[in-house]
Design goal:
With 442 residues, the chain is mainly β. It has 4 domains: 80 residues, Immunoglobulin-like; 163 residues, Sandwich (Immunoglobulin-like), CATH 2.60.40; 85 residues, Immunoglobulin-like (Sandwich); 67 residues, Sandwich (Immunoglobulin-like), CATH 2.60.40. 0% of the residues lie in helices and 52% in strands. The protein is built from no helices and 43 strands. Strand 15 and strand 16 form a beta hairpin. The radius of gyration is 44 Å and the shape is rod-shaped.
Length: 442
């Protein structure tokens, strides 16, 4: 058969699950297969996004990430569907650049450095926190905004770090700073504020992420302070008190809080836990064939793109022929169907993501009860005959209700053929004096 004319058996999207940075795009590969699993030439597809506020999909299958969240993308070719899950996350930092890369400042003077944070595409990420650090505070110090102050002649390396990516600038300090009386050291500066990163995020159930705490004394970022982590939402989040590792346990209606405490200062981040989107639905029936009046239970398996069960989702049910088969939901993943008339119907379960699956059930009419003969009435029931005289007997089969059963074959027999004979039609002929019983059987 010509591949262009072959019927579509199934379609597949690659990748089936992906993580996409906010503002980035991803093109899916659509594979069309026949019933035997052979790849067919490209066909036109209809694309759809479960939530266009999170990610939109073009007619060419290009997904654009718009807002942090999880969304399911669907492609339909000649009635066959494929699904993929896209987890839109904050764009990850791919590079940091510091300008100028080298600077000279007099002792006691200042120089302003700037850091450009960008994602993998080179787009600027202006909302990311940058941590500044000097390799030698005795030569040059740097504030949380990148302002460098010359302390004493020498060279120091200034490092800007954001989400694990770093860049450096070399600062040369010349001259000698004016001497001023210094107050005696009173120990580490007191912590003024704490910032948790990320501050607002969405996590998929089962995922883990390590949160970070930025600690400030005045406007200066400081390190080496002990951070204690906790959560006010233990039903949905688990937090390692020492490392800040957060695990998403269960979907939550309202965002939970991840807290970081440093020397009496506390900061929090909000985390909303969502379930993975349902990618496939499988429906099974306890009994795939029913008689009119019978019922059976259906069960839907709601699975994510990796084949894992999505426990928080509920299926909606529909019969494509309600005159034959009615369906009533009995739970998040179960339904009861009742056979109303002979025929066939497909009952489908649909998940909130739009993924669906079904099963076909055949309904037959109940068998018609077969009436049985309970007795045979013979008329006349008694008769006296002279030798060679005849009489015609009539046999009527009767069922249990007393109704005659027509069209039944009758077998005739005489108890003594030397006295009287009977034909197959019930004609009795007297042979000699005596008594005989003629029996009709149906």
């Amino acid at each position: 058969m010509d591949g262009a004319a072959a019927a579509v058996g199934s379609v597949r999207l690659t990748p089936a699950g992906s993580e996409l940075g906010l503002g980035n795009t991803l093109r899916f590969r659509l594979t069309v297969l026949d019933a035997a699993g052979n790849e067919l030439p490209a066909r036109d597809a209809v694309w759809a996004s479960q939530d266009t506020l999170v990610a939109a999909v073009s007619p060419e299958g290009v997904v654009a990430a718009r807002r942090i969240g999880v969304v399911q993308v669907q492609a339909v070719v000649q009635g066959k569907s494929a699904f993929a899950v896209v987890n839109v996350v904050a764009a990850r930092v791919a590079a940091v650049a510091v300008a100028p890369a080298a600077a000279s400042v007099a002792a006691g003077g200042t120089a302003q450095l700037s850091a450009r944070v960008s994602d993998a595409s080179g787009a600027a990420l202006n909302d990311r926190f940058v941590f500044w650090q000097s390799s030698n505070d005795a030569v040059a110090r740097v504030t949380s905004t990148g302002l460098v102050s010359g302390v004493a002649a020498g060279t120091a390396t200034i490092t800007a770090t954001s989400e694990g990516r770093s860049a450096t600038a070399t600062v040369t300090v010349t001259g000698t700073a004016p001497t001023t009386p210094t107050a005696p050291s009173t120990g580490p500066a007191a912590v003024d504020s704490v910032k948790v990163e990320p501050a607002d995020t969405t996590m998929v159930r089962g995922a883990s992420a390590r949160f970070r705490a930025r600690v400030f004394a005045g406007n200066q970022a400081v390190s080496g302070r002990a951070v204690t982590w906790s959560t006010s939402s233990p039903a949905t989040l688990r937090v390692d008190a020492a490392s800040g590792e957060v695990s998403a346990l269960a979907p939550s209606g309202e965002p939970g809080l991840v807290n970081a405490a440093v020397e009496g200062r506390v900061a929090s981040a909000t985390v909303k836990v969502v379930d993975r989107a349902v990618a496939t639905v499988g429906v099974t029936a306890e009994r795939p064939a029913l008689q009119v009046g019978e019922s059976t239970t259906l069960r839907a398996a709601l699975l994510d793109a990796d084949g894992g069960a999505v426990g928080s989702a509920s299926a909606s049910w529909r019969s494509d022929n309600p005159a034959v088969l009615s369906v009533t939901s009995t739970g998040p993943e179960t339904a009861r169907v009742t056979a109303l008339a002979a025929g066939a119907a497909t009952v489908a379960a649909t998940a909130p993501s739009g993924a669906s699956g079904g099963t076909r059930i055949t309904v037959t009419a109940p068998p018609v009860p077969v009436a049985t003969t309970t007795r045979v009435d013979v008329t006349p029931s008694a008769r006296s005959l002279a030798a060679r005289e005849t009489v015609q007997l009539t046999a009527t089969p009767v069922d249990a209700s007393g109704a005659p059963r027509s069209g039944r074959a009758i077998a005739w027999a005489s108890s003594d053929a030397s006295v009287a004979t009977v034909s197959d039609a019930g004609l009795v002929t007297a042979v000699r004096a005596g008594s005989a019983t003629v029996t009709a059987t149906a």
